[in-house]
Amino acid sequence: MTGTLTNGTNGTGPHKPPADLDASKLIIRRAESLKAVPVWETLQFGETPTDHMLICTYDPINGWSNPEIKPYGPLSLDPVGSCLQYATNVFEGMKAYVGPNGNPRLFRPSRNMKRLETSAARLALPTFDSSELLKLIKQLVLLESRWIPDLPKYSLYIRPTIIGTRPKLSVAASNEAMLYVVLSPTGPYFPTGPRPLSLMAVSETARTWPGGTGGHKLGINYAPALLPQQIAAKRGYDQIVWLLGEDNRITEVGAMNVFAVVGRDDGDLDVMTPSLDGTILPGVTRASCLELLSAHPQSSVLPNIPPSTRIHVHERAITMEELTSWSAKGQLHELFGVGTAVIVAPIGKIGFQNTDVIPLDHPEGFGPVAGALMQRLSDIQTGKWEWEGWSVELSA
């Protein structure tokens, strides 16, 4: 007589739910030999991996495997894996800095973890506990702390990544995944220093669009930018400014959020950035700039900005026509991009409809507002200026 199974799948016991990501189960396998750290000044962004990486995998039966820190090396993937066929790839960008006492510091890491969660959810990837992932990242950074450059404007770049690994060609959500974190020491993103960037405005090619995925940090958002970036470089421009719609709304600059500083008749400043309408990535640096600007001068005075200068912060659409008009009237004081890799990058001109319509000239590279934000953010990131608990110190 055949019985009916009610408490399990094979008659041996109750079914166990898939395991959650658990930092307490971390396994550390150290490299047998360590590489020599390079001369920091020779670094190119993302080209020098550290000795170790963090990795764990997910399958729908067992859940998340025990996380492992292991020697840096290649991944093993099925040729028809979801990440290779259907771009089920999400990632984050973070940095570790050396604090005044020599301990590593992370800048607002919980925001990166929350954004990674929402990006993974957008691609229907397996869920995970981002607080546990942050514990694991801290362990990895502490292990690799000798790779954090101790020079101004240098840091250790952190790239958490989740990829779908379902080994089937059928189009469906990936119920298998790999999560890994790699590190790479880095210097200034633009080695030429604070030289203002030149931009080519592009409207015929869209990086993101309403209802798309621009509000999430997905690999697929970056691939469409590669060809236009090559075209811009051939025409003598550093980066792209992405326009959207018939009114030529500005979305992002390259892979950065963008800010405009406009003078008012009363001597105050309007500082504007495009609102988060789904086409704009909610950058951690963007949010931090907005908060620092809003705090001036009530809670904190920005460096070299007089307390008498009031800053009015706006999240709103910005069109190329508005920028052109403000520039013609002498009201456009500054343009700059912000992001994890670059922090703050000044913009000097924009090529639009075959003409450089917005020339800006700041002898020091940075305008007053961009320079103030760069200095204040750098001081917070390295622990020289304490603000709202944004800089998280790590200790063994």
Automatic annotation (TrEMBL):
Domain of life: Eukaryota
N6-(pyridoxal phosphate)lysine: residues carrying this PTM: 217
Low complexity biased stretches: 1-13
This protein's GO CC annotations: mitochondrion
Ranges that cross the membrane: none
Protein name: Branched-chain-amino-acid aminotransferase
Entries under SUPFAM superfamilies matching the protein: D-aminoacid aminotransferase-like PLP-dependent enzymes
Pfam annotation, one family: Aminotran_4
EC number of this enzyme: 2.6.1.42
